[in-house]
Amino acid sequence: MKPAGRAVTQLAVRQTRRGGLLVLGLAAAMPALVAATYTSVMADPAAARSIAGLAANPAIRTLFGEPVALDQAGGFTVWRVGTVVTVLLAAWAILATTRITRGEEDAGRWDVLLAGRVPLRAVVARHLAVVMSVPVAAGAAVTTVLVLAGTDPAGAAVHGAGIGAVGLFFVAVAGLAAQVFPARAGATGAAVAVLGTGLLARMIGDGLTELGWLRWLSPFGLLALSEPYARNRVLPLLTLLTVTVLLIAAVLAAAGHRDVQGGLIAVASGRRPRLRLLSTVETFALRRLLRPLTGWALGVGAYYLLIGFTTVSVTGFLAGNPALADEAARAGFTGLGAVEGFIATLFALLALPVGAFTAVRMSAYVAAETNRHLTLLSAQPVSRLRLLTAELAATTGGALALVTVAGTAVWAGITATGGDLGLPTALAGPGTRFRS
């Protein structure tokens, strides 16, 4: 049993090591870079007070989180990139977990594996343990780089532990979704929905004081409540870890009460044929794109609609405080005093979801080819180049649709709050960022 178990663990390591090392490097590099620039940006106490005044604006808190200990390099680093690093780690944890568990099971590669001496519950547990090692390592790496940058070790430890705890939480969420849903797409979608809901709860809790309790219901909110470099609270992190342990227990229990290639949710054995968009290779690529594109568009649209709603408040605040605008420019936020400058700064973030979307879609195409889902199609008088070209065209169209949704959502939010921004200008902003 032990050699067989070790072989399963080694298999999981081989499937996650490249992506895990990449995420680990990014999680360590981003805090290190921001902490290194703190002296030149925020060393002046007056500058720190000015940025704190900017961060006190509810709209800014909604977008970037509640500012804590901005007079310290560690607190400034947490505010600038803490959420970005955490979301990156959480997204990787979800995709990696569903890929090497439900994805491998759906492809039939676990059939032979589970025909041996290792039961399904043990296989799931070993795969989750491997994925969980990455958030633990990422938290340790963040702590190390912040300590080496000269920040308070206690605050660095709390922040690193919080990032690792959030990563562990989403591994558990994705692992449970992989047991509940009988397909990888459903499991991934459910876990991503938990991520989006948690991030939205954190944003609302930070922006509206009377709804601050919502942060206790979000993993990102619990991370913020730990207040690294200020109060260094451990209770929120213990709460998050307790929920994670309960979820892991639920994963193992669910794995012991389902069939291989099945889920706790039963699916219909048959359905009426759906023949739309099956006439050509190009329309088939479009058909495969529509459902995931809808989910990505809803997420991107909701985020940029929120940005549109807050733009008038933020720019009006900065227009009345030119000193704050100057200090924000020194901190890397240029042109925030005007509507166009503010949305241009926020559109720089659009490259992340659009890039992730294109990478996921092309990975799905490669996976479909590797799993022989395209074998019968390739047996037709259709060249492989045409298949790839159709997929590239559909993915490019999806990316353009996402940037269009972002621009339209920003315009709608600004217009609804009395701002002055033309729709062509709003659409040109993300388009320019996308092309660059």
In short:
The model has no long low-confidence stretch (mean pLDDT 82). It contains 17 helices and no strands. It is mainly α and 436 residues long.
Please give the structural blueprint.
Blueprint: H1 2-42, H2 45-55, H3 58-64, H4 73-106, H5 110-114, H6 120-148, H7 153-180, H8 184-207, H9 219-225, H10 235-255, H11 281-319, H12 322-330, H13 339-347, H14 351-370, H15 375-378, H16 384-416, H17 423-435
Helix pairs in contact: 1-4, 1-6, 2-12, 3-8, 4-6, 4-7, 4-8, 6-7, 6-10, 7-8, 7-9, 7-10, 8-9, 9-10, 11-13, 11-16, 13-17, 14-16, 16-17
Can you put this structure into words, describing what you see?
This protein has 436 residues and is mainly α. The relative contact order is 0.10. It is built from 17 helices and no strands. Helix 1 runs antiparallel to helix 4, helix 8 runs parallel beside helix 9 and helix 11 (281-319) packs parallel to helix 16 (384-416). The chain has 2 domains: 1-271, no CATH class; 275-436, no CATH class. It starts with a helix and ends with a helix. The chain crosses the membrane at residues 21-41, 77-95, 127-150, 156-178, 190-214, 234-255, 296-319, 331-352, 392-414.
